[in-house]
Design a protein that fits this description.
seven-stranded mixed beta sheet, globular, Arg_biosynth_ArgJ (chains A, B), ArgJ-like_dom_sf (chains A, B), L-amino peptidase D-ALA esterase/amidase, 2 domains, 12 helices, Ubiquitin-like (UB roll), cytoplasm (chains A, B), L-glutamate N-acetyltransferase activity, acting on acetyl-L-ornithine as donor (chains A, B), alpha+beta, 17 strands, about 425 residues, homodimer, six-stranded mixed beta sheet
């Protein structure tokens, strides 16, 4: 039983995709020890929230995972540096995020802009500059007009409040058509809340899948344990989604645990409460990952690809992504065509161990192919009917081992081309 | 100076893409020792050439390269088996190709169909069954109606003639919008001709890039030398093109050298004539590869990506393919948007060594980015003007080593979605 609740936009955008969440609430709960604010700084566009600030209390644990791109942005490099030496006991921390400009591939000036933002944020908030975790998302390769952001820092600090999560979630959006947030509560001896929000819809692929994810909890959990749980869950959530196989230079996930809940701190992954926490956090991360895929550029179908019977979990993951990233599979799904031949092709091109005659494919519960060819029981009408659903499940069993993985993606439509063939100019 | 001449269709198809060749001839030259024929067998569609037969004289050398897919089709498996033990001195050989049905993932029945076709072809032609090189291209996963082909074998054999290359090239097409052929002549002591044709437009990616390629020459060249040259050239031609990153289960390249030219046989790769032959053959293979990309499903732009300064040639190749396969790069090109930030992204996600600050990017001769950010001399109008051309050159220098490679691709357009979202149903 899950208590997970989704965030809904206060005013839905006119271009929201057909897969946008329909049930939820319009606010995120306060997390003791975290205050948020958002503002319109006009980084690229006027009259929209485009900068968010989070203040995290002294004593928090912070964990993170970041893009593995070799051309990652200045803010990502700074976050990795700051996280490696972070000690929450020495004072408060901050997260500063702008949308509209990714400050990626902006040379030495880009680094200078990020350093200036960190220093000015630290000064305005009263924290150490190396306790600031910055992020920038938007167009690549254009100088970040950081003075538009620094001009708003005092206002951002003044407006910090515990319940501004929905505004913060809105401020980090770029081509997203809806805000993405979720929260849950659990009992770890004391009541604990986990809340998170994310942005991303194009340039989504492992590793890391999501562009930006921020999560907060009042649970008390030691930093190494928090990092271990976040890293474990990331593999099966944000690293298991793909929209177009492209990987951002800015992908960042940062999670803060304030420790304000009335509980003894979790100091070991073997503490039974660590697993309880991981289960609840996993639900949040998986749901946010799904929300990102459902907002995939031009998406009209949400596709879960379950791979079983592979040589290893890692092999299953690679095969799942090969299917999920295949333009021919994705366009077939867009066309509601149960073209399982393209799935066979994608298994074959993955480079992973496969035995044609041991392979079986199911659309949902419908057995399509087995023993190296189409199943005698398969009727095209059954497959075609399933493909008309909005949520599609493709089950591939390799029949050669015990490895398994699930990967999520969306279809590839004219909408994707329209959005991306004229995004910048 | 090249003597390369392209094949043009006798009657251009109404849906031929904007990048179709415009200069050439409508026939392929006869190759002494090779006879061809084509017929309408109605494998999938009526009233179109869909089966071709080639007869190759006793004493020929045959080389081949094939898809590395782990779910490759029955004909591919048979070709690999037959090629491994081929000895042309023991008798003539045959190539039998049908379009309309790929006989891939068709189980034991598929193997039986391929075996029947090989045996019946051998009987009709008077060659050994293991001298038959079959191929099937078209829809995956449907039983091949091989009796429609065997019913035409006597007719195919009766109609064999040296100058039927253009019909053979037409018979192997599927979604292709134009026939793809090229030939050249060279002097290896005696005049020698090399002639080839190919098909492919979707499901094109390394390895192997092209679905089907057949090449013939009257040169006398020992089989191991021919195989070595074909394999070398394949890396830089058919394995260096990509339309959508998807790899066919049927990709096959077969080349026959009849040895009928009045020359001493080339028995070593170190024979200077071997290099002469390789240069000429390389031109044919590169041109056929380019013709495949130019017929990429929905393509409106032909894109050459030159990667230099990489850690190794192989690293340069991987980076080139990462750029060429990026949906965000391909849609930007479709939109004539000089969005070099997406190229930086694609370099970064390749997993290959790169140093952001050593990287430079040029569109044609226009320097766009260097030293980790946009070049001070770059004007967006210059980049935008180049992107309006039909042929686009992207030059990426990694600045860290001597590795280089060139990769060719096309843009990703609404046309690709339209073709692939409703190909089968």
């Amino acid at each position: 039983m899950t208590t997970l609740t989704r965030l809904l936009p206060q005013t839905p955008k006119a271009n929201a995709g057909p897969l946008a969440p329909t049930t939820g609430v319009t606010t995120l709960p306060a997390i003791d020890g975290v205050r948020l604010s958002a503002t319109m700084a006009g980084v690229r566009y006027a009259n929209r929230l485009d900068v968010m600030l989070a203040e995290i209390c002294t004593g928090a644990s912070i964990a993170g995972v970041f893009t593995k791109s070799s051309t990652r942005s200045a803010p990502v490099l700074m976050c990795q540096d700051h996280l490696a030496k972070f000690d929450g006991s020495t004072g408060p921390a901050a997260i500063l995020v702008n949308s509209g400009n990714s400050n990626a591939f902006t040379g030495k000036n880009g680094f200078d802009s990020t350093r200036t933002l960190a220093e000015r944020t630290a000064a305005a908030l009263g924290c150490a500059p190396d306790h600031v975790f910055p992020a920038s998302t938007g167009v690549i390769g254009e100088p970040l007009p950081h003075e538009r952001i620094t001009a708003k820092l005092d206002e951002l600090v003044t407006n910090l409040r515990p319940d501004a999560g929905a505004d913060a979630a809105a401020a980090i959006m770029t081509t997203d058509t809806y805000v993405k947030g979720a929260f849950t509560t659990l009992d770890l001896g004391a009541p604990v809340t986990i809340s998170g929000f994310a942005k991303g819809s194009g340039m989504i692929a492992p590793d890391m899948a999501t562009m930006l994810v921020y999560m907060f909890t009042d649970a008390a959990i030691a930093q190494p344990v928090l990092q271990q749980i976040v890293s474990e869950l990331n593999i099966r959530t944000f690293n298991a989604i793909t929209v177009d196989g492209d990987t951002s230079t800015s992908d960042s996930l940062v999670m803060a645990a304030t420790g304000r809940a009335a509980m003894d701190r979790i100091d070991s992954r073997d503490d039974p409460r660590a697993e309880q926490f991981a289960v609840a956090l996993g639900e949040i991360m998986r749901d946010l990952a799904h929300q990102v895929v459902r907002d995939g550029e031009g998406a009209t179908k949400f596709v879960a690809i379950n791979v079983t019977g592979a040589a290893s979990d890692s092999s299953a993951h690679t095969i799942g992504l090969s299917i999920a990233n295949s333009p021919l599979v994705k366009t077939a799904i867009a066309g509601e065509d149960p073209n399982w031949g393209r799935i066979v092709m994608a298994v074959g091109k993955s480079g992973e161990p496969a035995d044609r005659d041991a392979l079986s494919i199911r659309f949902g519960h419908v057995l399509v192919a087995e023993n190296g060819w189409v199943s005698p029981s398969y009727k095209e009408a059954d497959g075609a009917a399933l493909m008309k659903e909005q949520d599609i499940e493709i089950n591939v069993d390799l029949g050669i081992g015990g490895g398994q993985a699930t990967v999520w993606t969306c279809d590839l439509t004219h909408g994707y081309i329209t959005i991306n063939a004229d995004y910048r100019s």
